[in-house]
Amino acid sequence: MAIAIVFPGQGTQQPGMGEPWRDHPAWRVVDDAEAAFGEPLAHLVLSAGPDDLARTREAQLAVLLTSLVAWEAVRDRIAAPVAFAGHSLGQVTALIAAGVLPLEAGVRFAARRAELTQAAADAHPGRMVALLGATVEQAEQACTAAPDGCWVANDNAPGQVVIAGTPDGVEAGATRAKELGVKRATPLNVGGAFHTPLMDDAAAGLAAELADVAFGSPLAPVVSNHDGQPYDDGDGWRTRLVDHVRVPVRWRTTLETMPTLGATTLLEVGHGSMIAGLAKRTVPDLPVTGLATPADLDALDALLEA
Predict the structure, then answer these.
(1) Among the options 87, 195, 244, 271, which is catalytic?
(2) What is the CA radius of gyration of the chain?
(3) Which residues contact 121 (CB under 8 A, 6 or more apart)?
(4) Quick one: fold of 127-187?
(5) Is 224 a catalytic residue?
(6) Domains of the chain: which residue ranges?
(7) Is the four-CA dihedral 166, 241, 227, 286 of positive or negative sign?
(8) Could you name the CATH architecture of 3-122+197-305?
(9) Are strands 150-157 and 127-132 parallel, antiparallel or unpaired?
(10) CA nearest to 173, candidates 147, 195, 210
(11) Is-above-0.85 flag for pTM?
(12) Residue 80 buriedness (CB in 10 A; 0-12 / 13-18 / 19+)
């Protein structure tokens, strides 16, 4: 069995999602992260409420930590994963898990990434709209209604494409999408137009943040969101992580790459089943196993022994 490891992104957060791991030895990841970061973090995955987790920084750190605890619990069971990847924020998790980013640097980067993208969103207000049932070609054509104000932000799966941009630009793009036959344009409850050029200010700040970070070589190739290609170098991520906040998430292409790397199953590590849902639509012949709580470890062990 050849396993590719995938991590979810923002949107999968839920109050108390770390509670099942609290007494597991893997919880030491939270302790280590707090010591390195110099700030309490455990409450984000234990007691933070919906309002707390609606904020970008808190939500992203909560998702990151929950996924890393789950990975700590399983990493010794998987001798040789064929690849790593993560959706948006999950790409940072993947880089930590793969050994490209040290834990301390990765947690600091995730926090700073959230702060800078939110600051960019405050300075350049924007919206995101999901075009359900649309092809990426339809989405790209819809964006031509406002070429300087609307862009494709996420190509998540067949029939699930997100456009983003200025309020007026997205309104024009959504109207054009309906003219092209797209049945539904659903606004997303997010704080800005992420993964578009409206995040250029954040990208500039992240370049400075990463200047002194020492990148390691990955345990296995990490498949990049921005082009769906696998990379087995470390230092190239200095540029990719900066670009990542201002270019589209090509998650459909990322998933399609996994079988070409030899993957015969995906292991979704972290809370929820976001990746499984997208994979079912994109690579239906590639099974997905989830690891969200310690209760999932027995099923995973049985799978690995099969």
Answers:
(1) 195
(2) 19
(3) 191, 192, 193, 194, 198, 199
(4) Alpha-Beta Plaits (3.30.70)
(5) no
(6) 3-122+197-305, 127-187
(7) negative
(8) 3-Layer(aba) Sandwich (3.40)
(9) unpaired
(10) 147
(11) yes
(12) exposed
For residue 291, list its beta bridge partners: 269
Average pLDDT value for residue range 3-31: 95
The type of residue at 276 is A
User: Among 67, 87, 88, 244, which one carries the catalytic annotation?
Assistant: 88
**Which amino acid is residue 204, in one-letter code?**
A
Query: CA-CA distances (angstroms) from residue 52 to 14, 27, 41, 46?
Result: 10, 21, 12, 12
Q: pLDDT tens digit string along 244-261? A: 999 999 999 999 999 999
- Locus of tokens 């089943």: 273
- Residue 111 vs residues 29, 132, 134, 198, 272: alpha-carbon distances, Å: 16, 31, 33, 19, 21
Lowest-pLDDT choice from 20-24, 55-59, 61-65, 181-185: 55-59
> What secondary structure does DSSP assign to 159-176, as a single string?
TEEEEEE-HHHHHHHHHH
Is 124 catalytic? The answer is no
State the Cα–Cα distance between residues 274 and 287, nearest whole angstrom: 14
**Sheet containing strand 83-86, strands side by side:** 230-231, 222-223, 83-86, 3-7, 265-269, 288-291
Burial class (CB in 10 A: 0-12, 13-18, 19+), 285: exposed
Mean pLDDT across 233-249: 94
